[in-house]
Write a structure and sequence with these properties.
Elements (H helix, E strand, L loop, with lengths): L1 E2 L3 H37 L1 H9 L1 H27 L3 H31 L10 H15 L2 H16 L3 H25 L3 H25 L16 H33 L2 H17 L1 H19 L3 H28 L1 H6 L8 H12 L4 H16 L3 H27 L2 H26 L6 H5 L12 E6 L2 H17 L4 H21 L10 E8 L2 E8 L6 H6 L10 H9 L2 E7 L2 E7 L1
Antiparallel strand pairs: 1-2, 2-3, 3-4, 4-6, 5-6
């Protein structure tokens, strides 16, 4: 038995969740590349113009989805961390209702624009407008499944039902490619077919996930009766800063484009576009990392577990940042071959500009990783000043400001270098924020994050242990009993607490550890709160709900599940939940 050190467990969970989150993040980029290839090769340049014209709608959908998904996932994770099942299901239901309403409004607007030719206020060219209207009509079909499917992905990740989301993601990519070929190459539907292929792909993506919730097997349940509509204000408050960052970046891009056109010309934008297309895929990695960290931090805040909260950020610094640094070096080394994917003539000015983009721009990603995580933590911990300062600095001020200073003198390289300088400035903002709040330079992760001293149970009122063997379980009973007595808990309740812990932790090691050939750990926490003894047993073994198991046996048979029956009979409350692939049993005495 040893004092808890759950950094390895946190790291293990985060890397297990990471592949799916990267896949979810890369879907829009892959969809864009596939659509671009079919549009440019089988329809023509006008089709590419139509796709570009639709980009603001895509950004709008992305912003709305990010607001709802970020706010809802963070709140839901906190409710799950507090074992508030009804509130978590209520939040899921509210998210689905709001997402459906917003999706329907956007769909009606798009269909009205097509029906009544409202796009004439945006596009003057009659031929382009005709194609654009057809493209809008095809995209409108997929607005509802696009929004609901992305929201469901976030909730399924919290429930650790990643296989269904993975299947939905793969199915979407395959269906989109097949339908693009069928509608464009075979049936010659043009831009309408291009849009319709994506829309039908999103319906497949949505339905596969929908049936996962319709089966009623998960933790979350849809219920109109239990909806707490007052939670919508909190969803907006948490999710809006992340959504606003999309708007900031749109403004930044407009400013940068203007600078490049003024001082470099259209050739500079062409070079910039090449790096943008590739980085659209590469950015799926840090975005996936951020999604994993968001879930882990929300659960930790819900459990009031300051150590796990800090450990999530430690994993980011120790693992995620080095990984992104290695990817950055790899892209930089292969700058010339990557440029040849887009431009073949090394003597052309655009070729050299694009090479500089692939050599310089990747190195902003490790620094951006730090900024993104602190913005996410700020959203969850209600640090609004930090969140908005970082969002505005990263979204507009730094990149646009440094570009304005550098582009007139060094050309397009100034834009690439501005992104690096932006990462340095945002990192310094994080340090200065910590320095101002603490009154001194941060000495550890908790001080860097400025986690309030009042957050969570004080160290003197909690005990954290990690168990790996039955020998350690044998001594845990005494340790728990001693801890409770030191907290002025009466002898009988202290003794029962030790007995409950020994029974349930021993059950995990005896049965859970033997289900596979993997190494496992039982994570134990005992706290005194409001004169209650609260014990939490967390493990990464296969799914096992002791409460569900007890209900499935004959209650009149005293020889079955004696340990579970004993604990449920003497405890004030016993609850179980599965969070991010972990079994979490909470016992209150």
């Amino acid at each position: 038995m040893k004092q808890k050190n759950n950094l390895k467990l946190i790291e293990k969970i985060m890397f297990r969740l990471l592949p799916l989150q990267i896949l979810l993040a890369v879907i829009p980029a892959v969809n864009g590349i596939v659509s671009g290839l079919f549009a440019s090769n089988f329809i023509g340049e006008d089709a590419m113009s139509v796709v570009a014209l639709y980009a603001p709608v895509t950004q709008l959908l992305s912003a709305v989805n990010l607001m709802l998904m970020g706010g809802s996932q963070i709140l839901c994770g906190q409710f799950m961390g507090r074992n508030q099942k009804d509130r978590a299901s209520s939040l899921f239901s509210l998210n689905m209702i709001i997402s459906t309403i917003i999706a329907c409004v956007i769909m009606v607007i798009l269909l009205s624009s097509w029906t009544f030719d409202l796009t004439r206020f945006i596009v003057k060219d009659a031929q382009i407008r005709l194609l654009f209207n057809r493209y809008i009509a095809g995209q409108a079909v997929g607005i509802i499944p696009l929004m609901l499917g992305q929201q469901m992905s976030a909730f399924l990740s919290l429930e650790n039902r990643m296989r269904r989301t993975t299947a939905a993601s793969v199915a979407f990519i395959v269906v989109n490619f097949i339908l693009d070929y069928l509608f464009i190459v075979v049936m010659h539907y043009g831009v309408f077919g291009l849009a319709l292929a994506s829309s039908l792909g999103y319906w497949v993506f949505f339905l596969i996930q929908f049936f996962g919730f319709a089966g009623g097997k998960g933790f979350l349940r849809f219920s109109l009766r239990k909806c707490h509509f007052r939670d919508f204000e909190q969803i907006l408050k948490i999710g809006l800063p992340g959504s606003l960052s999309q708007g900031y970046q749109t403004v930044r891009r407009l400013i940068v484009n203007s600078l490049v056109l003024t001082f470099v010309g259209s050739v500079g934008l062409s070079a910039f576009a090449a790096s943008d297309m590739l980085f659209g895929v590469v950015w799926a990695v840090p975005n996936g990392m951020l999604a994993v960290s968001r879930m882990m931090m929300s659960i930790s805040i819900g459990e009031e577990d300051r150590q796990s909260l800090a450990d999530v950020m430690r994993v980011m610094f120790r693992r995620f940042v080095p990984i992104m640094a290695a990817i950055s070096v790899l892209i930089s080394v292969f700058a010339v071959p990557l440029t040849r994917m887009f431009y073949q003539d090394p003597s052309a000015p655009v070729f050299e500009m694009a090479v500089w983009g692939f050599r310089i721009l990747p190195f902003c990603m490790p620094l951006s990783m730090i900024m993104m995580h602190f913005v996410c933590f700020g959203q969850e911990a209600n640090k609004q000043i930090l969140v908005h300062t970082l969002s505005v600095a990263d979204g507009v001020l730094d990149v646009a400001g440094f570009s304005a200073l550098l582009v007139p003198f060094v050309g397009i390289r100034g834009v690439f270098e501005a992104n690096i300088l932006n990462g340095i400035v945002t990192t310094l903002i994080i340090l200065f924020y910590s320095l101002i709040k603490n009154g001194y330079f941060p000495r550890n992760m908790e001080e860097l994050m400025v986690i309030p001293k009042t957050f969570g149970v004080p160290a003197g009122q909690r005990m954290d242990l990690s168990l790996k063997t039955m020998d350690e379980v044998i001594s845990v009973s005494e340790a728990v009993q001693v801890f409770c007595e030191n907290q002025d808990i009466e002898h009988r309740r202290a003794m029962l607490a030790g007995l409950c812990m020994e029974e349930m932790a021993g059950n995990v090691i005896s049965h859970g550890f033997t289900k596979d050939n993997k190494k496992h750990t039982v994570d134990v926490r005992v706290v005194r709160k409001n004169n209650d003894v609260i014990m939490r047993i967390k493990d990464d073994c296969v799914y096992f709900d002791p409460i569900e198991r007890l209900k499935s046996f004959d209650p009149d048979d005293p020889c079955r599940n004696v340990g579970i029956q004993l604990v449920t009979s003497i405890a004030k409350d016993v609850s179980y939940q599965s969070i991010l692939g972990l079994n979490v049993l909470t016992i209150k005495l």
